[in-house]
Amino acid sequence: MSRFRVQGKGRVRHDAPVGFTFDGRAYDGLRGDTVASALLANGVHLMGRSFKYHRPRGPVCAGTEEPNALVGTSRDGGAKGGRFEPNTRATAQELRQGLTVESQNRLPSLKFDVGAVNDRLYMLFSAGFYYKTFMWPRSFWDRVYEPVIRAAAGLGKAPDTVDPDRYASRYLHTDVLVVGAGPAGLTAALAAARSGAEVTLVDEHAEMGGALLSDPGVGIDGMPAWDWIAAQLDELDRLGVRRMTRTTAIGYYHQNMVGLCERLTDHLDTLPDDAPRERMWRVRAGHVVLAQGALEKPLVFDGNDRPGVMLAGAAQTYLNRYGVRVGDLAVVVTSHDSAWHAAFDLADAGTRIAAIVDTRASVRADLTEAAARRGIRVLASHTVTATWGRLRVKSVRVAPVRDGKVQGGYRIDCDCLLMCGGWTPSLHLFSHTKGTLRWDDVQQAFLPDRSVEACQIAGAGRGLWGYEAALRDGIAAGNAAAEALGRDAQDSAVLVANDRTGSGVSHKELPTDGDPNRARAFVDFQNDVTAKDIRLAVREGMRSIEHVKRYTTNGMATDQGKMSNVNGLMIASDAVGKAPPQVGLTTFRPPYTPTTFGTFAGYHRGGQFEVTRKTPIDAWAEAHGAAFEPVSLWRRAWYFPQAGEDMHAAVARECLATRRSVGIFDASTLGKIEVSGPDAVEFMNRMYTNPWTKLGIGRCRYGVLLGEDGYIRDDGVIGRLRDDLFHVTTTTGGAARVLAMMEDYLQTEWPDLDVWLTSTTEQWATVALNGPDARKVLAPLVEGQDMSAEALPHMSVAECTVAGIPARLFRLSFTGELGFEINVPARHGLRLWEALMQAGADYDICPYGTETMHVLRAEKGFIIVGQDTDGTVAPDDANLGWAIGKAKTDFVGMRSLRRPDLVAKGRKQLVGLLTEDGAVRLEEGAQIVADPDQPKPMKMLGHVTSSYSSATLGRSIAMALIEGGRDMDGQIVHVPMPDGVHKARITSTNFYDPEGERLKV
Amino acid sequence: MTHFSAMSLLKNALNGHKGWREQWPDAAPKKEYDVVIVGAGGHGLGAAYYLAKEHGITNVAVIDKGWLGGGNTGRNTTIIRSNYLYDESAKMYDHALDLWEGLSQDLNYNVMFSRRGVMMLAHNVHDVQSFQRHVHSNRLNGVDNRWLTPEEAKRFCPPLNISRDARYPVMGAALQMRAGTARHDAVAWGYARAAAARGVDIIQNCPVIAIRRDASGAVEGVDTAKGFIRAKKVAVSAAGHTSVVMQSAGVRLPLESYPLQALVSEPVKPCFPCVVMSNAVHAYMSQSDKGELVIGSGTDQYVSYSQRGGLPLIEHTLAAICEVFPIFNRMRMLRKWGGIVDVTPDRSAIVGKTPVKNLYVNCGWGTGGFKATPGAAHTLAWTVAKDEPHPINAPFTLERFTTGRLIDEAAAAAVAH
Amino acid sequence: MLLIHCPYCDETLPELEFAYAGEAHIDRPADPASLSDEEWRDYLFIRSNVKGTHAERWRHIHGCARFFNALRDTVSDEFITTYPAGQARPDLTIKEAAE
Amino acid sequence: MTLHDRDLHGATVTIEEIPPVARFSLRVRDKDRAAAGAALGVDLPDRVGDRAASGDRTLVCLGPDEWLVTAPEQARDGIVRDMAAIRDGAPHSLTDISDREITFRVAGPAALTLMTIGCPRDLRRLEPGRAVRTVFDTAQIVLWRDGPDSFRLDVWRSFAPHVRSLLEIGRKEIAAGF
């Protein structure tokens, strides 16, 4: 075991080694390690390269805010196993047996990266440099500059294999949600739970305790911190608090909805069956307590980014939680008391502290005394001006500051440099709610101000420092939450020994005696934004912090600005010459930490992506080799190819068979609405363009529905079953829309009408039989209805039984042939279909799909709403003027038909189109012109809406919307295509049996 | 104005970048302007630039309630294309595209317009019909747009899943090669810098309280947080806030403002070469030069100015992305944000004159405003300067809602059957 | 995702059960034929698009299926009140005075 | 991992499709409710979500003027007859929707947890004995709570396979201890 591991220290299991590889080399860590702590235990600091300059970097944090130590990880044989992912934070990824880790953004290797040439040219790559150049020659941007920039940018590689893991989601309702299980979160959860509230406590780490896990020397209520944590967790469990670890609150949405991402398997050596990798929890809480603590700020000085330079608090965590010393010889540089404790802990664990450099002139006596006791050199009122070391820091230059002037400096050797620039409250989730922040001049930090949601902020998150203060604040917040929910809360006390209280000051860049224009003082480590970049942005007129952010990319890295935002603001406000709140704080955006797409997608992948609605007859179609097409949420049988047939051949055969004898078609997806009640006919009169009063019982009629704007929305055949009962059919895709539209008018405009609407789309399975032999097939199966043409004429409806099943039997035709639509209760749909297939066997009955249906109706000139109309087509445009009740004074959309543009000449009208060469089938969507030789842009008259090869007619047919088309009957128009111009003659849309003789049987 | 070039960059690099000056001054309002433009987004700043450059009107102020480019200009997914269905739209967006192609040089500011191609996926027969109608119409309008088979689409964009078993199989795609993306902030900054160089005042953090009209009913200026500013003409280009501003002049518009969300992933090496849009599945994606996958989501169903937006939409959007590009399942969302889009009943913009004399409006771009920026700005400047419609913005009038002559791009994609 | 109080169910429920249905209190004219093109346009298309308290319609489509009205602040998205369809817009000044 | 007293390591939940029943949508105005109740032999409950039953007929109030009437299959014709008899005096709509929906029963100690994978409602507030229309994932359902650990879901027929397979995925997660 490495000499950096401190035996017996930390919460890792020293008896449980875990093997993993980094860039192909095998290492050992311990159960409980993160990738970063395990590598640090092996003396490895260099873990990544930065975004722009490809500078060598090591971890700067010990948590999810890490900007530098991003790695690619995979399991089960690397990338091809589908579980590779880029940009994983080594500081947060728990170690597991066999974990494969690789470094990123380097070529060929982490230690030698050719991309680092950018670092030599850093003066060129100042903030916003790309806005100022790469403009000449013009064509070079696409072909040269941009590809080069793109290849250099980005961090890890994207996965290139489909992810085999599954993702899950749940809703959760809870009285109180506590986010963060540090000292304040624990006491808040307990206080709320003691009041009897249902409480949920979540924490992003593998275990609860927060900062206390890094501070075992603190005593609470007479117990060592870690024993106290265990006792709290016991009581929380006894009280039934739902505790969730490895669970990040990623976003705070309206009305106390908080999204949580729970990571279920990434820490496991092997993947259990049926276990989702991650789960999205959509939590709705009565009250929320945010106890997310504070984030330690780096100090900004030249060379503050070398491997080995890290936050003092991180070093303390590596030591106390993971039992890892981050180096043998440390220099600590700080502007806050907290780093002193880190220094003492490290010193006590065997790391030599070469010096504690404090930027402040005076430091608390107890701290300096404690340093003296340990023989640590203290340099107050000092600054750091430079560091050295290519792949690891090896020395640091410090200098005294007198009256704001930097005096002569000197170098101190070290193998790690621990910095602390103070702490900033973690207010990301609070900001998601649009809660307001206020600037606190004393703390030099933004603190929560006005909350717009029912939430409390507790502990360090609102600027409190020291464990006792946080613990007490947690109790108060938990009690406040309980009281807000109407529960009795009890105050309780808490006593802390060895509390680590403290305070500090904030800085812009640390003062230096070097050339500030040469300083590489990093603010955003990952994006390589330096202090002088920010000053340059301000000099160029970027005065709002949002401009500065966007111009420099400060705060836009994968740490979401957790490391860089406040430092960036301090520097920008200094440069602008205004107080920080006047320069502003950039908005924190969800998610709190980057979250996989898979977690958001949840169950909605593959077959579960979206509902696929299938009819009761779908299984038969599938068994008989149907090809399917998606139509809204449904899948419909498209055509039924036989061996060797393509779509064209199958459709030709289906069409001919239907016209010759009989075809059978599954029309179950048609929308169906029962309109019932004494005012049903009045309602129908108001909704549809047609007149309904005189429609006899047992008869049906083709109805047209407009939007209030006068354009066609839907159509369908509507049957009258009783005086007060209509069976309305709609298009497949329009079913839900039409019902919603009808309900809207009924409930809100005409609530006085005694009529009710019920969707029966799925109550009925609908089978259409068409063809000259349709009656012969059907009649033997019908009971209770005379099937003669006199008793059941075209456009009529009857209730009877078919194949022993109660049915609504329509006689109607969407093909021009003798046609019936048989509606039976859905569970019997397949039985009806099979009975008809059997009865039709003697007539060579032919199942057909939607494509044949489309051809057959086009041969008759029947429109498909949405194909031959497009939302700008009025009834008259589609030759449906006859469907408007002449005596009607109002119906939905009627007034709009009188608007100037709807009565203007030259509207597009639906006409038939026959190509000069009948073998040429026009493309649907092809545009029509009068003069094919005109220059572009051409004057287009309209477009082809429907076009098919008609096997029946032995040639192609088409319908088109053409300006003034009805007045152009017989004229030739042109359809210019890439391969030549087609000529076509304008005709009627009724191509087949125009007199309707075939219906008269 | 310091000319931007590789030379000037090098020169400044050698002196520590001390030579750069502010790209636009932070102006204090004057008492009076020839034209006041409300809204310092790409459209408003662009209109000011073209007023100055092409019409010689330089006594112009652009006023914004916040910082310039802080509205939808800085919040969109930067898609630029012109393969629209109706002639009116195609002409407007193609005019914009023509200007996009020379914009960096025109402004001396690299807006990183990148012609990487925009591909729109067809997932059902209706999509195929509709997109082919686009392709044919565009071809005769001289607008670049071509049809691809699924295999061709996959070759153009390798992460695409073209499995026939997919819930929404790819049945083909319409590709506009000339289309692409640009760097959104740079558009606002580039216009601001170029306009300021021609004398335009850019006044930030100055909310407009009301448009003031004189006794004759004509516009006389704007009341702002920094006092009254007299103006001979006022043009409102305030995106989601247009209704509110115009209401103060007594003009009610057919507009509603909805929250629209967008998001980016963590940055990765180049893996996605173009822009892909899938209307049926509701997924739009490209990869920024920084390496982030840039993804557009949908609008929430209710009117809102909150810029928040709900979680279910994001969940649906990312499920859609993973459906079309299953290899990106383990990519992580880095950041999501919201904007406010102003939507008209026919989903097409309103650009031009209003019933109030000397008051002009440019609004209703919905989710398509960014791609129109130079075209809308350029034609708006014309209309303001000449007090008459530009041939390209003439169809985008307010009157069309009275006559019924809508430019209904949304309805043209209507699905019923 | 919003939480919405349905006045018919008397429960506060997730937005997923509801459908937004546009601005409230725009009644369909009793006699559309008598309207000018401009008046008809106003009915069809002109909306107040309020930044602030917005009267709007919702339908509890996956619940009791009723349309109802709401007052909602479009800046914070917070619901101020909901009330049955057909009822007049509540006068908030009276409500505030009573509190 | 989640730690909770109701957490369900290996806890069971069963999902079964139950046989069809006669099912009607009944719509009637307030003034005619009493007549409808008298005809059916069950008073119409007036609070959305409430259930009432008499003999083999069960009524659920789904909306202020909407009730779901269920009964064994053989009672179908009787219900139609009883209501037809009052149509003139008490106008209403009675629509047979027996085949519109498929019903699943979800029962067992983990039933409530399983429902949370798709139902956004706070199910703590849906007391046993009540039934409401709501959503499960993207499907509209009528959700019956028959007991603390027992639910029924009426799902539109074509949405049922989607709901069923989602429930199965969730059941396996729970069985696996996740």
TrEMBL record, chain A:
Ranges for domain Aminomethyltransferase C-terminal: 908-993
Taxonomic lineage of the native organism: Bacteria, Pseudomonadati, Pseudomonadota, Alphaproteobacteria, Rhodobacterales
Region: Disordered, residue numbers: 64-85
Designated name of the protein: Sarcosine oxidase subunit alpha
Keyword Oxidoreductase: yes
Domain SoxA A3: 519-602
UniProt xrefs under Gene3D superfamilies: 2Fe-2S iron-sulphur cluster binding domain, sarcosine oxidase, alpha subunit, N-terminal domain, BFD-like [2Fe-2S]-binding domain, FAD/NAD(P)-binding domain, Probable tRNA modification gtpase trme, domain 1
Segments forming domain GCVT N-terminal: 619-888
GO molecular function annotation: sarcosine oxidase activity
GO biological process: one example: tetrahydrofolate metabolic process
Family, per entry: Belongs to the GcvT family.
UniProt keyword annotations, A-Z: Oxidoreductase
InterPro entries listed in its UniProt record: 2Fe-2S-bd_N, BFD-like_2Fe2S-bd_dom_sf, FAD/NAD-bd_sf, FAD/NAD-binding_dom, GcvT/YgfZ/DmdA, GcvT/YgfZ_C, GcvT_C, GCVT_N
Organism: Oceaniovalibus guishaninsula JLT2003
Tagged with keyword Magnesium: no
From TrEMBL, chain B:
Cofactor field: FAD; FMN
GO cellular component assignments: cytoplasm
GO molecular function: nucleotide binding; sarcosine oxidase activity
Keyword tags: Cytoplasm, FAD, Flavoprotein, FMN, Nucleotide-binding, Oxidoreductase
Residue ranges of domain Rhodanese in the record: 35-79
Compartments where found: Cytoplasm
UniProt catalytic activity: sarcosine + O2 + H2O = formaldehyde + glycine + H2O2; sarcosine + (6S)-5,6,7,8-tetrahydrofolate + O2 = (6R)-5,10-methylene-5,6,7,8-tetrahydrofolate + glycine + H2O2
Stated family: Belongs to the SoxB family.
Record protein name field: Sarcosine oxidase subunit beta
Automatic annotation (TrEMBL), chain C:
Pfam families, per database record: SoxD
GO biological process, one term: tetrahydrofolate metabolic process
InterPro entries reported for this sequence: SoxD (IPR006279), SoxD_sf (IPR038561)
Gene Ontology molecular-function annotations: sarcosine oxidase activity
Domain of life per record: Bacteria
Protein's name according to its UniProt entry: Sarcosine oxidase subunit delta
Natural source organism: Oceaniovalibus guishaninsula JLT2003
Automatic annotation (TrEMBL), chain D:
Record-linked InterPro entries: SoxG, TrmE/GcvT-like
Gene3D superfamilies: Heterotetrameric sarcosine oxidase, Probable tRNA modification gtpase trme, domain 1
Alphabetized Pfam families for the sequence: SoxG (PF04268)
Name recorded for this polypeptide: Putative sarcosine oxidase subunit gamma
Source species of the chain: Oceaniovalibus guishaninsula JLT2003
